[in-house]
Specification:
The protein is α/β, with parallel strands linked by helices and 466 residues long. It contains 14 helices and 21 strands. A 6-stranded parallel beta sheet has the order 2-1-3-4-5-6, with helices on both faces. Strands 17-18-19-21-20 form a 5-stranded mixed β-barrel. It is globular, with a radius of gyration of 23 Å. The structure holds S-adenosyl-L-homocysteine, iron/sulfur cluster and FE3-S4 cluster.
Length: 466
């Protein structure tokens, strides 16, 4: 009988990508994936350490799993429990002390050794949080064509890992290690394999994706802008996205790619964290609010319809009402299409956690509520602005209701539309007729020339209809 593995992933896209790679490493060992813990012989929690809440979630989950494991044991059935990801890296052996159900703790840079580590863990509990010298990517087996297909037409592609920026609030440089860029040739090999199996869109990912500086086939160092141009040439690839970027690494080549590369979608997630210069300095972000505004202006000049997205932290140590107002001011000026916002969470081992002037919880809550209300208004305004327009949609799956399909707009909005005849992976034109809280609704146009309702452009490779 096949053994079953359940990988539950928390946190960012890097973790989502790693979760798939872990399943790929385990497939040759006879493990098939399941999406239910109840069915699984092997349970992997791929954890996130970014905020206290995220990290604590893991321990409550492990508490539940211990009960399950004990019950099964009584019935003579074994369950193996693995903690992977950033909590594993940050806490290592502490996890074994706090959670008796855990058999193996494995960090984000050593999960390619999972088969050997699992073998070892049959004898005694194991912790591996090394940053090995070998490149884990060289040891990861390629997923099968069917596996790639089952994961959909839009795929993450890791090009860069780790971070050297050391923002004073952030654990990532400690949990993911130093910044490294994968060589272009290796990225291209993975990209071509994914595209050959039907992938139409890549979101290239990295903790600091626009700091990418990988070795090119010409022996020179390639930037993200250059790599994106190369990825756009992969047969079958219609759309490119990248995340997450740092304002300090938005170079001219990348901004130009937004102007010159039609496959590069008009969407930029560029975390600013705060609008106050003194808070930005205390965060060690190494840019000011105005420098951020200038980058946005230049990007908008290159691609006027670009949708902007950001991350915000409220209640960083020392944040005054005036600092918070500066954040609100920046939000009102820029008008983000989407955003994530968080209360500052002190993290062990980071400089900001030691700062004296921590902000009280109720102040953080009030600021977060005000910020989220402003961001939500902008988000809804952005959605409503698409109503009445005909836009390109990459079809990703069947829709919620019979007769519907679902996909994404160029601006990363979910779109539900009526028409069952299109195939997953097609790019079709949809006239937007309404908006919901999280998605757009529309009608497909252009299928039958007689039914054309809007000025149509020829079938494109993903440039938007603006
Ligand atoms: N590399 C990315 C961010 C990765 S972490 C960047 O530089 O922008 C994702 C987001 O989590 C951050 O942008 C930040 O807004 C938030 N975050 C990180 N550490 C945090 C902390 N200690 N408390 C609250 N939010 C935090
Ligand atoms: Fe964390 Fe800053 Fe690095 Fe982003 S750039 S991962 S926020 S240290
Ligand atoms: Fe969380 Fe690690 Fe990503 S801390 S946000 S899973 S890099």
């Amino acid at each position: 009988m096949k053994k079953k593995v359940y990988v539950k992933s928390y946190g960012c896209q890097m973790n989502a990508y790693d979760a798939e790679r872990m399943a790929d490493v385990l497939a040759p060992q006879g493990f098939v994936e399941t999406d239910s813990a109840e069915e699984a012989d092997l349970i992997v929690l791929n954890t996130c350490h970014i905020r206290e809440k995220a990290a604590e979630k893991v321990y409550s989950e492990l508490g539940r799993l211990r009960v399950m494991k004990d019950e099964r044991k009584a019935e003579g059935r074994d369950t193996t429990i693995v903690v992977a990801g950033c909590v594993a890296q940050a806490e290592g052996g502490e996890i074994l002390k706090r959670a008796s159900a855990v058999d193996l703790v494995v960090g984000p840079q050593s999960y390619h050794n999972l088969p050997a580590l699992l073998e070892k863990a049959r004898r005694a509990r194991v912790v591996d949080t090394e940053f090995p010298i070998e490149d884990k990517f060289d040891h990861l087996p390629a997923p099968s064509r069917d596996k790639i297909r089952s994961r959909g037409v839009s795929s993450f592609l890791t090009i860069q890992e780790g971070c050297d920026k050391f923002c004073t609030f952030c654990v990532v440089p400690y949990t993911r290690g130093a910044e490294i860029s994968r060589p272009v040739a290796k990225i291209m090999a993975e990209a071509e394999r994914l595209a050959a199996a039907g992938v139409r869109e890549f979101t290239v990912i990295g903790q600091n994706v626009n700091a990418y500086h990988g070795e090119g086939p010409d022996g020179r160092t390639w930037s993200l802008g250059r790599l994106l141009h190369r990825l756009a040439e992969v047969p079958g690839i219609a759309r490119l996205r990248y995340t997450t970027s740092h304002p300090r690494d938005m170079d001219d080549e990348l901004i130009d790619a937004h102007r010159n590369l039609p496959a590069l979608m008009p969407y930029l997630h560029l975390p600013v964290q705060s609008g106050s210069d003194s808070i930005l300095a205390a965060m060690n972000r190494k840019h000011t609010g105005d420098e951020y505004r200038r980058i946005i202006e230049r990007t908008r000049a290159a691609r006027p319809d670009i949708a902007l997205s950001s991350d915000f932290i409220v209640g960083f140590p020392g944040e005054t009402d005036a600092d918070f107002d500066a954040t609100m001011q920046l939000v009102r000026e820029i008008g983000f299409a989407s955003a994530y916002s968080f209360k500052y969470s002190p993290r062990p081992g980071t400089p900001a956690a030691q700062m004296a002037n921590q902000v009280p919880e109720d102040v953080k809550s009030a600021r977060l509520a005000a910020l989220q209300q402003a961001l939500e208004e902008d988000r809804q305004r952005f959605h409503r602005a698409t109503v009445g327009r005909t836009i390109d949609v990459l079809v990703e799956r069947k829709g919620r209701y019979a007769g519907q399909m679902a996909g994404k707009s160029p601006w990363l909005q979910g779109v539900q539309f009526d028409d069952e005849t299109v195939a997953i992976g097609d790019i079709v034109q949809v006239e937007i007729t309404g908006t919901g809280t999280n998605s757009l609704f529309g009608q497909r146009v252009g299928a039958d020339p007689a039914s054309l309702t809007a000025v149509q452009r020829p079938h494109s490779t993903g440039a938007n209809a603006a």
